[in-house]
């Protein structure tokens, strides 16, 4: 499921079959690459208190799971400081990869699977931090195997090819860059 699809999704209390609000934002734990909560108005529902995100709604049991924010990331998500979409994506060494356009996650577990940036994908496992200015991912410089190359965007593959002085890199496709670097 994509983050953009989850926003605005109705939250339903299964004990009363009543809507209690809509998903305004998601709370992410970058270190665990997982969604830890949902923002509903100015309140939070922990991911563990949901039945996951279904095709039509998010379910919770009773109004008790609704609570005030308890952590910095939760407060940031409620007040908009750490809402991630449209933020720049930077590598840990400061290289700009583009703008975060969406996040793909598992609707049952909340695990972040992919970060979508300018039509390309970055593995969710590379997520390191999320702040008021940018989202930070691990650097392409950590690439040590051909499998790691698959996790890089075309722009990162190009920069790595540039660092390794690969001839013809400017005319190569994403796949050709991977093959040249492997």
Secondary structure elements and pairings:
Blueprint: H1 3-6, E1 10-13, E2 18-22, E3 25-29, E4 34-40, E5 43-46, E6 50-53, E7 57-60, H2 72-79, E8 88-91, E9 96-105, E10 112-117, E11 120-123, E12 127-130, E13 135-137, H3 146-149, H4 154-163, H5 174-181
Parallel strand pairs: 1-7, 8-13
Antiparallel strand pairs: 1-2, 3-4, 4-5, 6-7, 8-9, 9-10, 10-11, 12-13
Helix pairs in contact: 4-5
Structure in words:
The chain has five helices and 13 strands. Helix 4 (154-163) packs parallel to helix 5 (174-181). The protein folds into two domains: 3-79, PRC-barrel domain (SH3 type barrels), CATH 2.30.30.240; 88-181, Roll (SH3 type barrels), CATH 2.30.30.240. The protein is 19% helix and 35% strand. It has helices at 3-6, 72-79, 146-149, 154-163, 174-181, and strands at 10-13, 18-22, 25-29, 34-40, 43-46, 50-53, 57-60, 88-91, 96-105, 112-117, 120-123, 127-130, 135-137. The strands form three sheets. A six-stranded mixed beta sheet has the order 11-10-9-8-13-12. Strands 2-1-7-6 form a four-stranded mixed beta sheet, with no helix packed on it. The mean pLDDT is 88. It is α+β, with helices and mostly antiparallel strands and 182 residues long.
């Amino acid at each position: 499921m994509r983050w953009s699809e989850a926003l605005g999704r109705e939250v339903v209390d299964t004990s009363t079959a009543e809507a209690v609000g809509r998903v305004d934002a998601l709370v992410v734990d970058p270190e665990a690459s997982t969604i830890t909560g949902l923002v509903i108005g100015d309140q939070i529902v922990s991911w563990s208190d949901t039945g996951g995100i279904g095709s039509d709604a998010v379910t919770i049991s009773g109004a008790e799971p609704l609570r005030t924010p308890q952590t910095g990331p939760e407060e940031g998500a409620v007040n908009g400081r750490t809402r991630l979409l449209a933020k720049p994506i930077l590598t840990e060494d400061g290289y700009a990869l583009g703008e975060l356009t969406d996040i793909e996650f598992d609707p049952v577990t909340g695990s972040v699977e992919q970060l979508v940036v300018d039509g390309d994908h970055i593995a969710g496992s590379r997520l390191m931090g999320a702040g008021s200015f940018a989202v930070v991912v691990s650097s392409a410089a950590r690439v040590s195997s051909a499998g790691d190359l698959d996790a890089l965007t075309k722009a990162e593959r190009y920069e790595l090819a540039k660092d390794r002085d690969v001839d013809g890199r400017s005319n190569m496709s994403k796949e050709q860059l991977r093959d040249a670097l492997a």
